[in-house]
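Proteins fold. Shown next:

***
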Amino acid sequence: SSGFTAIAEIRDSEGPNMTRDDIEVTYHNSPGGRRQYIPDLLELGEVTFPVNWLPTDSTHDSTDGLLADLKNGTVDRDFVIVLSDTANTPIYFTGYVKGFEPGHPVSGELTASITIKVNGNEIVYP
């Protein structure tokens, strides 16, 4: 994963949640009088993760970090998720910051929930 900058203080992550919609292709003489479907375009989904928010950290801030990407509408940023398996398996994708939702607790750590919209040609799994 050289060439990538690790985002500070990521907790658990989820996604990408890939899905396809259905296209109904039923016709008058469909076999057995049943509806028929084919798969629509592949939706590559989103990746979501909470962070312990560090407002001045260069990977979180509004100058160079995730918040800057959101505010500037930066697209086609390359991301990699490194799994915690014994091989540290990488999953590569391109996307943009869709959401940055900070939490402001009275006590405890500052947090933020981050959403990355996968916006590339593919997700590269091993």
In short: Residues 66-72 form the longest helix (7 residues). The two ends are 13 Å apart (CA to CA).
